[in-house]
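Section 5.1 Outputs to date
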Amino acid sequence: MNQLHLAIVQAGNEEIKKWRLEAGEDDRLDLTHCQLNKANFSNLDLSHVDFTDSILPEADFTGSTLVGAIFSRADLRGAIFDRCHLFAAIFTKADLQRSKFRSADNDRAHYSGSPSIGGLDVNFRDANLTGSDFEGCVFVKASMEGSVINGASFLGAHLPKSLWCGAQGNHMTSFASANLVAASFSFAVIPGANFVDAKLQQTIFENVVMTGADVSKANFFEAKLTDGIWSRVKGAPQSLHLDKTHPESNAQYFDHCDINWRERWCSWERLRTFGRLPLFSASWTGFAFVASYVYIIAWHNEQVKKLADSPSPRGVWVSHYVHELPLPSQTLLLFTSTILLAVASTIYSIWCPARIREFSQEKWCDELKRSLLHYWPLAWKTPTLRVICGTLYVTGAACAIWVIAAKIWTTGTYIIKNISIF
């Protein structure tokens, strides 16, 4: 620490201004490694001052200008930065336990790796956090109520029980891989925010604007999603435990979430159209019948051929009067159809969730007044099996329709050719 620089700062803004007029353009006031308990730095212009590794518990910076100031690894427990201008300030790995940044301008400030694990945690209430970097921070019970978090990054941050009520963000706000267990986002406006792989267990989303947010791989176990706007939300099919959200959860416009063709056209709810038909018993019965029929014909033809090749009188008689039975032209297609439908019906019966088999979406939502959040996620389960099941259903049905159409055509043609007109 430079004692002269400390004296200049303690003398006030006039001395700081004089020093800057005399100093070089790249010079900084050096207060590194200083130890000042409950220091008063309020209403000072401390732009670009270097506080690296300083010990400043309960220091008061209220109303100060700290543009580009450096607080890396500083001990700032209980420090007050209310209404400060902290543009591009650096707090990397600083201890911010119980510190306060209420109504402060933290535009593009850097807090990455800062620990704060106290019971009463860091307070950013009504602060401007636009473009700020909180990557890897540990802020337990942090207060972010009413803050502006446009473009802020909380990538991998540990923020359990944090409060975000009334916060305002945008599509550049990122909570990717963040721990937000038991946090509260009541009345927050965060359209397009990134919640990929975030831990959101027991988190409260009450009246939140989440339009276009990305929730891929986010864990919603026992989260409470009440009202709000959830239209065009991305990655919902890839999120975890949406069906296990709070029973009162009823996210508005969730039916307009952004889903791909697989979830839209090959969900268990769509496959229910085939599944509720009695195809399981019919297809397996048809399979057994066709297999038995082909076996009997094959056995008959084998016996006829064996007797016809015999030089005995019986063989001669058989060769003249008994002939091999031909297989119908559509037998292979019919056999294929029964196999495909039988396998598809078996997959549906085993892996389709019971709730989907029991209720249609209309009955679940309109008649029973239950949330779509507790229906669609079940309809999106086991995507690979859904695609296999859907492909087998469609292919098997197409084969069956072709066989039936061919039989109808043959029958109709025969009737027309042989009809007698009187």
